[in-house]
Task: structure prediction
Amino acid sequence: MSQLQQVLNQIDSDQDNALNRLFELLEIPSISTDPAYATHCVDAADWLVNDLKSIGIDATRRDTPGHPMVVGHSRKNSNPESPHVLFYGHYDVQPVDPLELWHSDPFKPALEQTTNGQVIRGRGAADDKGQLMTFIEACRAWQTINGELPVNITFLFEGEEESGSPSLIPFLKANKQELVTDLALVCDTGMWNESTPAICTMLRGMLGEEVIITGADKDLHSGMYGGAAQNPIRVLSKILAGLHDDNGRVTLEGFYDGVPPLPEQLKQQWDSLCFSATDFLGAVDLSDAAGEKDHTALEQIWSRPTCEFCGINGGYTGEGFKTVLPSRASSKISFRLVGSQDPHKIRRSLHNYIEASLPADCTVEYIEHGASPATVMSIDNAAFEKARKALSDEWQTEAVYIGCGGSIPVVGDFHEILGMESLMIGFGLDDDQIHSPNEKYNLSSFQKGIKSWARVIDSLASN
Ligand code: BES
Ligand code: ZN
Result:
């Protein structure tokens, strides 16, 4: 029996333990954006350090001004030709609210039978703890069978991915020597569908900005002052409404600078995926693509930039009614970016637009929430085809190259700071409800994901 086959068998026989280890990690509420959960982020980092140590990786927790990083190095293996890769994942998760929409405790993970097979339910199951553990489990099995890994591996786990990665760039710069490898492997993306594995070649960038409009120095009675006093909700709504035109285009000056047309070859490749907008939207009870009118739904999520409002706040939002004219109103705005759109330039353009729209008696403040440009991978690198073959072997379905509407800022930073390409492979599905209540990860994603990585690292070891 080949060594790879022994590793795959080992993965099968260790399934229950692998699941229990994932559950332990899922129980830690490592919500990075909320300072109240900071100690849990440290706990998750420590858990990972110990788990890596248990498979012979020399791992340490690296404290940063924010949440810690985890860095580990495998012992050099016996093949002097062996490539060296860096694996990246994130242990932080998104907030759980609205909590009342969860059918179970987000941090009491459980296996659940659904009409579509078994799923692992819990915050972080798919984004990204379950995915991250697919890689560690693959390494564990290789270590058990072979006593060493087929390639040399550096591990990097981040705890701030979901909150704009403020410590990441300084950390990469300060630890460049230690972190540079031949290639980065990233497990934080999805499959094309339940049966078709995928390698993601494009990510959108992101600019996050919170805008706070203030009028009067206190909340006012809306009868006594209404009419004469500025209402920050009204001012904010008008500003937000002005950010799109009737064709779904963003109106900010210079916004489309650097947005490339879709190359014909890529368009053909995407056409061959036979994406159905009706199915994609239908699955979440929608029917009509709401983006730029002259672009398909797939382009709207993969290759076109957007401006979306992720939160809005102001006035009385509790039960019942209160006649109040609020002093403040705010919104959290996210821009997804493509091509060479410059997040900093767009931030300036947003500020200019808002300040030009502000009436007398209103002021504006901003809170910045990360700015990262889009990234496109070149699939010329031989590793991409090796990995695609390994994935196809595991899933018995030809793996495809896909785009991705989400953002993983580290991928751009690996390229800029460490000069490394990233191979993005993940096993998430559109219906995993990431960032939303009742997040899940299919048990098949977890189990076959582990075997996929076992095969991918094997494929990378050979010429
Ligand atoms: N795993 C996601 C990115 C993703 C989403 C990949 C959907 C594939 C499909 C990642 O954890 C994420 O959510 N990133 C944030 C980054 C942001 C806060 C800078 C995102 O995209 O909103
Ligand atoms: Zn996420």
User: Anything to note?
Assistant: The chain has 14 helices and 19 strands. The chain has two domains: 3-203+374-461, 205-266+290-369. Residues 443-461 form the longest helix (19 residues).
